[in-house]
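Hello again, I could really use a second opinion on something today. I've been staring at a protein lately and its backbone has me curious. Please have a think about how the structure follows from the sequence. I owe you a coffee for this, so here goes:
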Amino acid sequence: MAEKIYAIPVNDAFEKDCECPVCLMYRDIEADAISFTLGPSYMDDRFRLQTDKLGFCKNHMQMLYDKENRLGLALMMKTHMEKTNREIEALAKNPLKGGLFKKGSPVVDYVKNLQSTCFVCDRVKDLYDRYIYTILYLYKTDDKFREKYKKCKGFCTGHFGRLLQDASGEMSGKMLDEFVKVTTDIYLENMRRVEDDVQWFINKFDYNYHDAPWKEAKTAVVRAMTKLNSIVPPEEKKSNKIYD
């Protein structure tokens, strides 16, 4: 039953004209997690216990701020700061011999741990892992999805690696061999396509190409950003097209 629920957004992403359907899914998961964090849930004590403990990474703190729910963000920041200050103060009263900031001291370990946790990251990771599993599950069990997968425009480098990595735990034998070959072929073919578009973009700045058509080069740099760094333009969400 769970596979059927997650199959809907997976199929939707692979039907879109984009450079990496996994990037689209990840972006939507992240946006939903940000909206949830600043929704009515922030008034729930159980929820606030989690945000107080985990805090937010730099990237997601900026995304929360950009949502412009200043009161909701302030309330979460206030109780998180209270907890952090209280616990660091308690640890600082009994530092290890050699100094408060000695490597391996309770305060240093506390700060390092706090900087490595994020409520939104944890929420995104759980659903993202399920979507990756669903892609692999559908490839194994759904002929229509398999054909859809083969016709996509490939993946960003990071998601290409993730798919190959996880496939080894979900597939074996001929199916695994086929998936690795298909995924690698799709990735390389489309990376070369975008590479050619980037080269043509560069050519257009040479006066010898002044009168030549742009072809697909006008969006080459943006699409290359998706391929190389999993960056999807935010305006895509409104139009359901990554590149206008």
Q: What stands out?
A: Residues 154 and 186 are 5 Å apart (CA to CA). The chain has a mean pLDDT of 90. Residues 2-239 form one domain. The chain has one domain: 2-239.
